[in-house]
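User: Just a sanity check before I run the rest of the batch. Below are the structure tokens for the first item. I only need the designed sequence back.
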């Protein structure tokens, strides 16, 4: 398969409304070859509280073909039994919609899913255990199921990585199928950083592998050259 694009995923500590928070960001762009077919320049940002990882705010700037808009999502309430968010979309500074969506469980934006799986206590989880959520995109509520699959070893560029594999079902139109829409492998050590991510998108399959890391709190014990 030709390489269609590149993505950069980053997490850092910042301030949100005068409180310390995690900021997750994802930048994606198509290569110059695919720009001629379908040009994409998307940016996503999410904020979550420290230390409880409560989602606070999410925005995405979408530039895909002839589609251009900015969307902002503010978490108004967040409990295991109830979530309420405010979503506003603008195009060319004109408000396309401004609405409130409600779910009867945890509501998590797509980037904060990665923080959630990193924070799970895997000593208390067994194979097949699952967690149900709702994510919000535009005016839609999408059901999400995160399922712990297994321990797995990934081989890449002469190195081995001990990982924990999770599968994610996402009932959203961007994905080719809701079952196992995404697969995520996180390092099986204290860091729990994403090592590999796969997604079955309607525009094609996406796969991302860890290329570098820095400022980890703990030694990266999941990596081995043997």
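Assistant: Here's the designed sequence for the first item:
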């Amino acid at each position: 398969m030709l390489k269609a694009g590149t993505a950069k995923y980053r997490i850092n500590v910042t301030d949100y409304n005068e409180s310390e928070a995690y900021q997750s960001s994802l930048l994606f762009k198509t290569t110059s070859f695919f720009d001629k077919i379908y040009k994409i320049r998307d940016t996503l940002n999410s904020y979550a509280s420290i230390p409880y990882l409560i989602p606070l705010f999410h925005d995405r700037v979408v530039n895909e073909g002839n589609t251009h808009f900015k969307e902002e999502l503010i978490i108004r309430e967040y409990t295991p039994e109830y979530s309420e968010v405010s979503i506003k979309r603008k195009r060319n500074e004109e408000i396309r919609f401004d609405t409130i969506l409600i779910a009867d469980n945890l509501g998590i934006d797509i980037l904060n899913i990665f923080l959630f799986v990193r924070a799970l206590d895997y000593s208390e989880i067994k194979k097949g255990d699952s967690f149900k959520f709702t994510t919000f995109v535009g005016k839609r509520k999408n059901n999400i199921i995160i399922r712990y699959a297994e321990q797995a070893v990934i081989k890449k560029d002469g190195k081995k990585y001990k990982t924990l594999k999770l599968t994610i079902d996402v009932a959203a139109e961007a994905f080719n199928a809701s079952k196992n829409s995404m697969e995520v492998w996180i390092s099986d050590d204290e860091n729990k950083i994403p090592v590999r991510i796969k997604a079955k998108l309607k525009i094609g399959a996406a796969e991302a592998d860890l290329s570098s890391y820095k400022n980890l709190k703990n030694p990266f014990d999941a990596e081995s050259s043997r």
